[in-house]
Protein backbone atom coordinates (compact mmCIF):
# COMPACT_ATOMS: atom_id res chain seq x y z
CA UNK A 1 0.00 0.00 0.00
CA UNK A 2 1.06 3.60 -0.59
CA UNK A 3 2.19 5.70 2.31
CA UNK A 4 0.45 8.98 3.03
CA UNK A 5 3.50 10.80 1.68
CA UNK A 6 3.34 8.91 -1.64
CA UNK A 7 -0.37 9.64 -1.95
CA UNK A 8 0.22 13.31 -1.38
CA UNK A 9 2.96 13.19 -4.02
CA UNK A 10 0.51 11.64 -6.50
CA UNK A 11 -1.98 14.38 -5.80
CA UNK A 12 0.70 16.92 -6.67
CA UNK A 13 0.71 15.53 -10.21
CA UNK A 14 -2.80 16.90 -10.65
CA UNK A 15 -2.18 20.31 -9.10
CA UNK A 16 -1.66 23.33 -11.34
CA UNK A 17 1.51 25.38 -11.36
CA UNK A 18 3.19 23.45 -8.54
CA UNK A 19 6.29 22.78 -10.62
CA UNK A 20 7.15 26.43 -11.04
CA UNK A 21 6.27 27.50 -7.49
CA UNK A 22 6.89 31.05 -6.40
CA UNK A 23 8.83 31.81 -9.59
CA UNK A 24 5.78 31.06 -11.75
CA UNK A 25 3.56 33.15 -9.48
CA UNK A 26 5.97 36.07 -9.72
CA UNK A 27 6.16 35.72 -13.51
CA UNK A 28 2.36 35.64 -13.82
CA UNK A 29 2.05 38.73 -11.61
CA UNK A 30 4.62 40.62 -13.67
CA UNK A 31 2.86 39.57 -16.87
CA UNK A 32 -0.50 40.79 -15.61
CA UNK A 33 0.93 44.08 -14.33
CA UNK A 34 2.66 44.84 -17.64
CA UNK A 35 -0.47 44.02 -19.62
CA UNK A 36 -2.70 46.11 -17.38
CA UNK A 37 -0.28 49.06 -17.53
CA UNK A 38 -0.12 49.03 -21.34
CA UNK A 39 -3.91 48.73 -21.60
CA UNK A 40 -4.43 51.70 -19.26
CA UNK A 41 -2.07 53.77 -21.44
CA UNK A 42 -4.24 52.81 -24.41
CA UNK A 43 -7.39 53.83 -22.50
CA UNK A 44 -6.09 57.35 -21.83
CA UNK A 45 -4.84 57.79 -25.41
CA UNK A 46 -8.16 56.64 -26.86
CA UNK A 47 -10.18 58.91 -24.56
CA UNK A 48 -8.13 61.91 -25.71
CA UNK A 49 -8.38 60.96 -29.38
CA UNK A 50 -12.11 60.24 -29.23
CA UNK A 51 -12.85 63.67 -27.75
CA UNK A 52 -10.41 65.59 -29.99
CA UNK A 53 -11.44 63.89 -33.21
CA UNK A 54 -15.15 64.19 -32.46
CA UNK A 55 -15.06 67.89 -31.46
CA UNK A 56 -12.71 69.01 -34.27
CA UNK A 57 -14.55 66.83 -36.78
CA UNK A 58 -17.81 68.61 -36.04
CA UNK A 59 -16.22 72.08 -36.02
CA UNK A 60 -14.20 71.48 -39.22
CA UNK A 61 -17.09 69.78 -41.01
CA UNK A 62 -15.22 66.51 -41.54
CA UNK A 63 -17.44 63.44 -41.52
CA UNK A 64 -14.35 61.25 -41.90
CA UNK A 65 -12.82 62.63 -38.70
CA UNK A 66 -16.07 62.11 -36.81
CA UNK A 67 -16.15 58.52 -38.08
CA UNK A 68 -12.55 58.07 -36.94
CA UNK A 69 -13.53 59.27 -33.48
CA UNK A 70 -16.08 56.44 -33.39
CA UNK A 71 -13.28 54.06 -34.35
CA UNK A 72 -11.23 55.34 -31.41
CA UNK A 73 -14.31 54.76 -29.26
CA UNK A 74 -14.35 51.12 -30.44
CA UNK A 75 -10.75 50.89 -29.22
CA UNK A 76 -11.93 52.03 -25.80
CA UNK A 77 -14.45 49.20 -25.79
CA UNK A 78 -11.74 46.67 -26.68
CA UNK A 79 -9.47 48.08 -23.94
CA UNK A 80 -12.16 47.48 -21.32
CA UNK A 81 -12.69 43.95 -22.70
CA UNK A 82 -8.95 43.31 -22.25
CA UNK A 83 -8.98 44.69 -18.69
CA UNK A 84 -12.00 42.54 -17.84
CA UNK A 85 -10.46 39.39 -19.32
CA UNK A 86 -7.06 40.10 -17.75
CA UNK A 87 -8.67 40.38 -14.31
CA UNK A 88 -10.65 37.15 -14.62
CA UNK A 89 -7.84 35.12 -16.27
CA UNK A 90 -5.74 35.59 -13.11
CA UNK A 91 -8.22 33.67 -10.98
CA UNK A 92 -6.95 30.35 -9.74
CA UNK A 93 -8.53 26.96 -10.25
CA UNK A 94 -11.88 26.28 -8.60
CA UNK A 95 -14.51 23.55 -8.64
CA UNK A 96 -16.09 24.88 -11.84
CA UNK A 97 -12.77 25.60 -13.59
CA UNK A 98 -10.25 23.02 -12.32
CA UNK A 99 -7.66 24.09 -14.91
CA UNK A 100 -7.92 27.80 -14.12
CA UNK A 101 -9.35 30.72 -16.09
CA UNK A 102 -6.62 31.37 -18.67
CA UNK A 103 -9.07 30.94 -21.54
CA UNK A 104 -10.70 34.23 -20.62
CA UNK A 105 -7.85 35.74 -22.67
CA UNK A 106 -8.66 33.49 -25.63
CA UNK A 107 -12.32 34.47 -25.44
CA UNK A 108 -11.28 38.14 -25.36
CA UNK A 109 -9.10 37.61 -28.44
CA UNK A 110 -12.13 36.13 -30.20
CA UNK A 111 -14.21 39.17 -29.21
CA UNK A 112 -11.49 41.54 -30.43
CA UNK A 113 -11.30 39.65 -33.72
CA UNK A 114 -15.05 40.07 -34.15
CA UNK A 115 -14.75 43.78 -33.32
CA UNK A 116 -11.96 44.24 -35.89
CA UNK A 117 -14.04 42.43 -38.51
CA UNK A 118 -17.04 44.62 -37.76
CA UNK A 119 -14.92 47.79 -38.03
CA UNK A 120 -13.42 46.61 -41.33
CA UNK A 121 -16.80 45.79 -42.81
CA UNK A 122 -18.11 49.17 -41.63
CA UNK A 123 -15.22 50.94 -43.36
CA UNK A 124 -15.92 49.02 -46.57
CA UNK A 125 -19.61 49.86 -46.39
CA UNK A 126 -18.91 53.57 -45.87
CA UNK A 127 -16.32 53.65 -48.67
CA UNK A 128 -18.66 51.99 -51.15
CA UNK A 129 -21.35 54.50 -50.18
CA UNK A 130 -18.97 57.40 -50.91
CA UNK A 131 -18.11 55.99 -54.33
CA UNK A 132 -21.78 55.58 -55.15
CA UNK A 133 -22.54 59.15 -54.03
CA UNK A 134 -19.38 61.21 -54.76
CA UNK A 135 -21.32 64.46 -54.67
CA UNK A 136 -21.89 64.06 -50.94
CA UNK A 137 -18.36 65.24 -50.10
CA UNK A 138 -18.03 68.78 -48.76
CA UNK A 139 -15.01 71.06 -48.17
CA UNK A 140 -13.38 70.76 -44.76
CA UNK A 141 -11.10 73.02 -42.73
CA UNK A 142 -7.33 72.47 -42.68
CA UNK A 143 -7.31 71.89 -38.90
CA UNK A 144 -9.00 68.52 -39.53
CA UNK A 145 -5.91 67.34 -41.44
CA UNK A 146 -3.60 68.24 -38.54
CA UNK A 147 -5.77 66.37 -36.06
CA UNK A 148 -5.84 63.33 -38.35
CA UNK A 149 -2.02 63.38 -38.62
CA UNK A 150 -1.65 63.71 -34.83
CA UNK A 151 -4.05 60.80 -34.36
CA UNK A 152 -2.06 58.74 -36.88
CA UNK A 153 1.23 59.38 -35.04
CA UNK A 154 -0.34 58.68 -31.62
CA UNK A 155 -1.90 55.40 -32.77
CA UNK A 156 1.28 54.18 -34.45
CA UNK A 157 3.35 54.91 -31.34
CA UNK A 158 0.71 53.25 -29.18
CA UNK A 159 0.75 50.17 -31.43
CA UNK A 160 4.53 49.81 -31.22
CA UNK A 161 4.49 50.21 -27.43
CA UNK A 162 1.65 47.73 -26.88
CA UNK A 163 3.08 45.15 -29.28
CA UNK A 164 6.46 45.29 -27.55
CA UNK A 165 4.81 44.67 -24.18
CA UNK A 166 2.57 41.91 -25.60
CA UNK A 167 5.53 40.06 -27.13
CA UNK A 168 7.56 40.42 -23.93
CA UNK A 169 4.84 38.87 -21.76
CA UNK A 170 3.69 36.50 -24.54
CA UNK A 171 -0.02 37.40 -24.47
CA UNK A 172 -2.09 36.72 -27.59
CA UNK A 173 -4.87 38.90 -26.20
CA UNK A 174 -2.52 41.89 -25.86
CA UNK A 175 -1.15 41.21 -29.35
CA UNK A 176 -4.70 41.33 -30.72
CA UNK A 177 -5.37 44.60 -28.90
CA UNK A 178 -2.10 46.07 -30.20
CA UNK A 179 -3.06 45.26 -33.77
CA UNK A 180 -6.43 46.84 -33.12
CA UNK A 181 -4.50 50.03 -32.37
CA UNK A 182 -2.65 49.55 -35.69
CA UNK A 183 -6.02 49.22 -37.45
CA UNK A 184 -7.03 52.55 -35.94
CA UNK A 185 -3.73 54.04 -37.14
CA UNK A 186 -4.57 52.76 -40.62
CA UNK A 187 -7.99 54.35 -40.28
CA UNK A 188 -6.36 57.67 -39.31
CA UNK A 189 -4.11 57.37 -42.38
CA UNK A 190 -7.19 56.91 -44.56
CA UNK A 191 -8.79 59.95 -42.94
CA UNK A 192 -5.63 62.03 -43.49
CA UNK A 193 -5.48 61.00 -47.14
CA UNK A 194 -9.18 61.65 -47.56
CA UNK A 195 -9.00 65.10 -45.97
CA UNK A 196 -5.86 65.93 -47.97
CA UNK A 197 -7.56 64.80 -51.16
CA UNK A 198 -10.62 66.83 -50.21
CA UNK A 199 -8.48 69.95 -49.73
CA UNK A 200 -6.81 69.33 -53.13
CA UNK A 201 -10.08 68.53 -54.86
CA UNK A 202 -9.41 64.78 -55.39
CA UNK A 203 -12.40 63.34 -53.59
CA UNK A 204 -11.92 59.78 -54.93
CA UNK A 205 -8.80 59.20 -52.75
CA UNK A 206 -10.86 58.86 -49.59
CA UNK A 207 -13.15 55.95 -50.62
CA UNK A 208 -10.40 54.07 -52.52
CA UNK A 209 -8.00 54.16 -49.57
CA UNK A 210 -10.82 53.28 -47.19
CA UNK A 211 -11.61 50.15 -49.22
CA UNK A 212 -7.95 49.03 -49.09
CA UNK A 213 -7.67 49.56 -45.35
CA UNK A 214 -11.11 48.06 -44.74
CA UNK A 215 -9.95 44.87 -46.42
CA UNK A 216 -6.76 44.84 -44.32
CA UNK A 217 -8.65 45.35 -41.06
CA UNK A 218 -11.23 42.70 -41.99
CA UNK A 219 -8.46 40.21 -42.78
CA UNK A 220 -6.80 40.98 -39.45
CA UNK A 221 -10.07 40.43 -37.57
CA UNK A 222 -10.66 37.11 -39.34
CA UNK A 223 -7.13 35.93 -38.50
CA UNK A 224 -7.39 36.78 -34.80
CA UNK A 225 -10.88 35.34 -34.55
CA UNK A 226 -9.86 32.12 -36.32
CA UNK A 227 -6.78 31.67 -34.13
CA UNK A 228 -8.80 32.22 -30.95
CA UNK A 229 -11.49 29.78 -32.11
CA UNK A 230 -8.86 27.11 -32.79
CA UNK A 231 -7.37 27.63 -29.32
CA UNK A 232 -10.81 27.23 -27.77
CA UNK A 233 -11.07 23.92 -29.67
CA UNK A 234 -7.91 22.62 -27.91
CA UNK A 235 -5.42 23.33 -30.68
CA UNK A 236 -2.00 21.79 -30.06
CA UNK A 237 1.04 23.88 -29.17
CA UNK A 238 3.51 24.88 -31.90
CA UNK A 239 5.80 22.16 -33.26
CA UNK A 240 8.92 23.71 -31.71
CA UNK A 241 7.29 23.71 -28.27
CA UNK A 242 6.29 20.05 -28.62
CA UNK A 243 9.80 19.12 -29.80
CA UNK A 244 11.38 20.95 -26.84
CA UNK A 245 9.05 19.19 -24.39
CA UNK A 246 9.82 15.80 -25.92
CA UNK A 247 13.56 16.41 -25.74
CA UNK A 248 13.42 17.63 -22.11
CA UNK A 249 11.55 14.53 -20.92
CA UNK A 250 13.60 12.08 -22.98
CA UNK A 251 16.76 13.40 -21.32
CA UNK A 252 15.41 12.41 -17.90
CA UNK A 253 17.46 9.54 -16.42
CA UNK A 254 15.31 6.40 -16.38
CA UNK A 255 13.00 7.45 -19.25
CA UNK A 256 13.53 4.89 -22.03
CA UNK A 257 11.10 6.55 -24.42
CA UNK A 258 7.73 8.26 -24.64
CA UNK A 259 4.63 8.18 -26.82
CA UNK A 260 1.16 9.77 -27.08
CA UNK A 261 2.59 13.20 -26.29
CA UNK A 262 -0.39 15.55 -26.56
CA UNK A 263 -0.62 19.29 -25.95
CA UNK A 264 -3.45 21.80 -25.93
CA UNK A 265 -3.58 25.55 -25.51
CA UNK A 266 -5.00 27.07 -22.34
CA UNK A 267 -4.92 30.79 -23.03
CA UNK A 268 -1.22 31.46 -23.62
CA UNK A 269 -0.23 28.40 -21.56
CA UNK A 270 0.07 24.73 -22.54
CA UNK A 271 -1.39 21.58 -20.99
CA UNK A 272 0.57 18.36 -21.63
CA UNK A 273 -0.35 14.65 -21.54
CA UNK A 274 2.33 12.02 -22.09
CA UNK A 275 3.02 8.29 -21.69
CA UNK A 276 6.52 7.61 -20.32
CA UNK A 277 8.26 4.27 -21.01
CA UNK A 278 10.11 3.09 -17.88
CA UNK A 279 11.91 -0.14 -16.95
CA UNK A 280 9.26 -2.64 -15.88
CA UNK A 281 11.10 -4.24 -12.93
CA UNK A 282 11.56 -0.97 -11.03
CA UNK A 283 9.55 -0.38 -7.88
CA UNK A 284 6.49 1.86 -7.94
CA UNK A 285 8.42 4.42 -5.92
CA UNK A 286 11.30 4.46 -8.42
CA UNK A 287 8.96 4.77 -11.40
CA UNK A 288 7.08 7.56 -9.66
CA UNK A 289 10.32 9.43 -8.98
CA UNK A 290 11.38 9.18 -12.64
CA UNK A 291 7.97 10.44 -13.84
CA UNK A 292 8.11 13.30 -11.33
CA UNK A 293 11.53 14.36 -12.60
CA UNK A 294 10.35 14.22 -16.23
CA UNK A 295 7.35 16.36 -15.29
CA UNK A 296 9.56 18.85 -13.45
CA UNK A 297 11.80 19.24 -16.50
CA UNK A 298 8.83 19.86 -18.76
CA UNK A 299 7.31 22.40 -16.38
CA UNK A 300 10.59 24.32 -16.22
CA UNK A 301 9.23 26.13 -19.29
CA UNK A 302 7.31 29.31 -18.43
CA UNK A 303 4.52 28.47 -20.86
CA UNK A 304 3.66 25.02 -19.45
CA UNK A 305 0.72 25.07 -17.06
CA UNK A 306 0.52 21.37 -16.15
CA UNK A 307 1.89 17.97 -17.22
CA UNK A 308 -0.08 14.75 -16.77
CA UNK A 309 2.18 11.69 -16.92
CA UNK A 310 1.31 8.01 -17.35
CA UNK A 311 3.94 5.31 -16.77
CA UNK A 312 4.13 2.41 -19.24
CA UNK A 313 6.35 -0.49 -18.08
CA UNK A 314 8.86 -1.68 -20.67
CA UNK A 315 10.87 -4.92 -20.28
CA UNK A 316 14.48 -4.43 -21.33
CA UNK A 317 17.05 -7.26 -20.92
CA UNK A 318 19.56 -6.56 -18.20
CA UNK A 319 23.06 -6.24 -19.66
CA UNK A 320 24.64 -7.40 -16.41
CA UNK A 321 22.66 -10.68 -16.28
CA UNK A 322 25.46 -12.92 -17.72
CA UNK A 323 28.00 -11.44 -15.34
CA UNK A 324 25.84 -12.29 -12.34
CA UNK A 325 25.20 -15.79 -13.70
CA UNK A 326 28.89 -16.52 -14.22
CA UNK A 327 29.68 -15.26 -10.77
In summary, what is this structure?
The protein has 327 residues and is mostly helical.
Radius of gyration, rounded? 27 Å
Mean pLDDT comes to 76
What is the overall silhouette?
Answer: elongated
Helix/strand-derived category reads mainly alpha
Q: What spatial order of strands do you see in the largest sheet?
A: 1-2-3
N-to-C CA distance: 35 Å
Number of strands: 3
Described by its quaternary structure, the protein is single chain
Helix and strand sequence: HHHHHHHHEEHEH
Number of helices: 10
Which percent bin holds the helix content? 55-70%
| Strand percentage | 5-15%
Main sheet properties: 3 strands, mixed
Task: Give unreliable regions as ranges.
Answer: 1-24, 321-327
Output the keywords:
327 residues; 10 helices; disordered C terminus
Task: Please give a structural write-up.
By secondary structure, the chain is mainly alpha-helical. Helix content is 68%, strand content 10%. The protein contains ten helices and three strands, in the order H-H-H-H-H-H-H-H-E-E-H-E-H. A three-stranded mixed β-sheet has the order 1-2-3, covered by helices on one side. Helix 2 runs antiparallel to helix 5 (143-169), helix 3 runs antiparallel to helix 4 (103-132) and helix 4 (103-132) runs antiparallel to helix 7 (205-232). The longest helix is centred in the N-terminal third of the chain and has 40 residues, at 21-60.
Amino acid sequence: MKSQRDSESDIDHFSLGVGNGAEASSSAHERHAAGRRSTLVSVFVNIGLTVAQGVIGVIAGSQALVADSLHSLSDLVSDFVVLFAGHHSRKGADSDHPYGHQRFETAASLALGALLLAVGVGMLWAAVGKIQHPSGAQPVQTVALWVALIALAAKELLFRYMLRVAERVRSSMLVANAWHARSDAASSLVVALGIGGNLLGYHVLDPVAAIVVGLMVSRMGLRFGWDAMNDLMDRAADDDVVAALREAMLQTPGVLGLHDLKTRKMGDMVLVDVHLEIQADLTVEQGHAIASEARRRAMARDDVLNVMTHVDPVRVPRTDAPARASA
